[in-house]
């Protein structure tokens, strides 16, 4: 039987003998109907159209994709812009920490609570993401997520009391959690185009992370208050709301249900989206969760504290210290866009082993050598080899999970990553408050060694 599978707007087709072909709705990624014609010539013509996909030995491991449906370009651009803003929000926090401490009279340990707020929002998003998909479709995500980010940016732009700032950050984290999980699950389900689209999205995220510290540094150096940064973000998030709603305007609840519908009589291997417990019956869920727990902790620790470390321990002016965070994120963007071919050639497992070994060596050299130009180059190279980690992990997860729990799977694993992104920077801030910021590079080395050990748990065939 010829069957069309769909996740979001990405679909692919597999063929089995003895059944009528299906008609594909390229606009929504859904399936219109079975071919009603009993004409052998018509059926043969349809079979030639449907069965021309490359052979697929394991339908749950690898999907083959026809040319992207109409409207996918708009969605890719909207998702890239959303991830670009995610990068601005993420990197901006580390750059304004010194100003937050001055404004509110905070210590390193107290200001570190800001790293807890976003994961709290992600936790709520992980539990509601599937519900929103079922009731509102991807269009609901495209509306609710940016609105939450607008609320956070607008409140922060008023320079409120610090507890209100933290509460607004939770709302912003909820919106970011919805957007990240939804667009990652959508793009990872695009078959053979998944790695390319994931690379575009995460490359846009790294670009946002690169520009964030530069913009904040220029605002601060020109004497403008830090709240202007969030006023600028509120304008960007309004544009994100408009572009996302337009790109996903057809992806309502009905389109999402069409995508999940099993059109043949065999329902084996399908898991209900509401069956949350089923996710962690798959070992890959635990491995990817642990991997992102450690990886996002490293990434957030670097972007969150490198500016403070370089200004206090290496005695570099604040405006130049921000460049180290930007160089790290520029390197991540380059790695995500340029290392995809090498990753495919080596295999994910071997490539990640190589990248992590290089990352450990770069960080060790950064810790020992105290020459700012060389430190800047090492930080950029560290970003390059760490860049492919997140998208490769998400792609592996989606390829090994049933499609009905893709969204919940990505949301849950991303939540574990955000947990690492909260605990590790918070621990950095706590230690900085107790013994000083000089512990920063050594903690990063320990985290990298832990990530190398977790990577050994991935299946060797990946």
TrEMBL record:
<feature type="transmembrane region" description="Helical">
    <location>
        <begin position="354"/>
        <end position="371"/>
    </location>
</feature>
<dbReference type="InterPro" id="IPR051788">
    <property type="entry name" value="MFS_Transporter"/>
</dbReference>
<keyword id="KW-0813">Transport</keyword>
<feature type="transmembrane region" description="Helical">
    <location>
        <begin position="76"/>
        <end position="97"/>
    </location>
</feature>
<comment type="similarity">
    <text>Belongs to the major facilitator superfamily.</text>
</comment>
<dbReference type="GO" id="GO:0016020">
    <property type="term" value="C:membrane"/>
</dbReference>
<dbReference type="InterPro" id="IPR011701">
    <property type="entry name" value="MFS"/>
</dbReference>
<feature type="transmembrane region" description="Helical">
    <location>
        <begin position="229"/>
        <end position="248"/>
    </location>
</feature>
<feature type="transmembrane region" description="Helical">
    <location>
        <begin position="406"/>
        <end position="427"/>
    </location>
</feature>
<feature type="transmembrane region" description="Helical">
    <location>
        <begin position="140"/>
        <end position="158"/>
    </location>
</feature>
<dbReference type="Pfam" id="PF07690">
    <property type="entry name" value="MFS_1"/>
</dbReference>
<feature type="transmembrane region" description="Helical">
    <location>
        <begin position="109"/>
        <end position="128"/>
    </location>
</feature>
<dbReference type="GO" id="GO:0022857">
    <property type="term" value="F:transmembrane transporter activity"/>
</dbReference>
<feature type="transmembrane region" description="Helical">
    <location>
        <begin position="439"/>
        <end position="458"/>
    </location>
</feature>
<feature type="transmembrane region" description="Helical">
    <location>
        <begin position="279"/>
        <end position="298"/>
    </location>
</feature>
<keyword id="KW-0472">Membrane</keyword>
<feature type="region of interest" description="Disordered">
    <location>
        <begin position="1"/>
        <end position="46"/>
    </location>
</feature>
<keyword id="KW-1133">Transmembrane helix</keyword>
<feature type="transmembrane region" description="Helical">
    <location>
        <begin position="200"/>
        <end position="223"/>
    </location>
</feature>
<feature type="transmembrane region" description="Helical">
    <location>
        <begin position="377"/>
        <end position="399"/>
    </location>
</feature>
<dbReference type="InterPro" id="IPR018247">
    <property type="entry name" value="EF_Hand_1_Ca_BS"/>
</dbReference>
<feature type="compositionally biased region" description="Polar residues">
    <location>
        <begin position="34"/>
        <end position="44"/>
    </location>
</feature>
<keyword id="KW-0812">Transmembrane</keyword>
<dbReference type="InterPro" id="IPR020846">
    <property type="entry name" value="MFS_dom"/>
</dbReference>
<dbReference type="InterPro" id="IPR036259">
    <property type="entry name" value="MFS_trans_sf"/>
</dbReference>
<feature type="transmembrane region" description="Helical">
    <location>
        <begin position="318"/>
        <end position="342"/>
    </location>
</feature>
<feature type="domain" description="Major facilitator superfamily (MFS) profile">
    <location>
        <begin position="75"/>
        <end position="462"/>
    </location>
</feature>
<feature type="compositionally biased region" description="Polar residues">
    <location>
        <begin position="1"/>
        <end position="14"/>
    </location>
</feature>
<feature type="transmembrane region" description="Helical">
    <location>
        <begin position="164"/>
        <end position="188"/>
    </location>
</feature>
<dbReference type="GO" id="GO:0012505">
    <property type="term" value="C:endomembrane system"/>
</dbReference>
<protein>
    <submittedName>
        <fullName>MFS general substrate transporter</fullName>
    </submittedName>
</protein>
């Amino acid at each position: 039987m010829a069957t069309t599978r769909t996740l979001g707007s990405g679909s692919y087709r597999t063929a089995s003998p003895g059944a009528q072909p299906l008609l594909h709705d390229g606009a929504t990624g859904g399936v219109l109907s079975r071919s009603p014609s009993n004409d052998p010539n018509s059926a043969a013509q349809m079979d030639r159209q449907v069965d021309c996909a490359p052979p697929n030995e394991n339908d749950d491991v690898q999907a083959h994709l026809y040319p992207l449906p109409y409207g996918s370009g708009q969605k890719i651009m909207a998702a890239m812009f959303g991830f670009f803003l995610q990068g601005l929000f993420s990197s901006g926090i580390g750059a304004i920490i010194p100003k937050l401490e001055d404004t509110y009279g905070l210590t390193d340990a107290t200001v570190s609570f800001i790293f807890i707020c976003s994961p709290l929002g992600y936790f709520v998003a992980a539990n509601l993401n599937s519900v929103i998909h079922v009731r509102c479709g991807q269009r609901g995500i495209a509306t609710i997520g940016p609105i939450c980010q607008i609320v956070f940016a607008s409140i922060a732009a008023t320079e409120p009391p610090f507890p209100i700032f933290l509460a607004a950050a939770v709302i912003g984290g909820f919106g970011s959690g919805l957007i990240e999980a939804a667009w990652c699950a959508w793009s990872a389900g695009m078959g053979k185009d998944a790695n390319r689209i994931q690379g575009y999205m995460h490359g846009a995220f790294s670009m946002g992370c690169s520009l964030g510290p530069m913009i904040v540094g220029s605002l601060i150096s020109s004497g403008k208050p830090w709240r202007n940064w969030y006023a600028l973000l509120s304008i960007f998030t309004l544009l994100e709301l408009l572009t996302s709603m337009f790109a996903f305007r057809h992806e309502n609840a009905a389109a999402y249900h069409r995508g999940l519908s099993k059109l043949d009589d065999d329902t084996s291997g399908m898991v209900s989206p509401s069956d949350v417990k089923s996710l962690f019956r798959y070992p890959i869920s635990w491995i990817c969760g642990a991997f992102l727990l450690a990886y996002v902790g490293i990434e957030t620790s670097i972007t969150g504290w490198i500016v403070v470390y370089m200004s206090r321990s290496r005695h570099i002016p604040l405006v130049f210290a921000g460049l180290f965070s930007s160089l790290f994120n520029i390197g991540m963007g380059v790695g995500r866009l340029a290392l995809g071919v090498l990753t495919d050639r080596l295999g994910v497992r071997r490539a990640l082993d190589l990248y992590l070994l290089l990352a450990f060596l770069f960080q060790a050299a950064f810790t020992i050598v105290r020459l700012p130009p060389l430190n800047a180059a090492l930080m950029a190279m560290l970003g390059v080899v760490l860049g492919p980690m997140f998208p490769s992990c998400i792609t592996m997860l989606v390829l090994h999970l049933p499609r009905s729990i893709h969204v919940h799977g990505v949301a849950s694993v991303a939540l574990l990553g955000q947990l690492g992104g909260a605990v590790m920077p918070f621990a950095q801030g706590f230690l900085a408050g107790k013994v000083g910021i000089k512990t920063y590079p050594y903690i990063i080395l320990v985290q990298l060694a832990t990530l190398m050990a977790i990577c050994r748990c991935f299946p060797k065939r990946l």
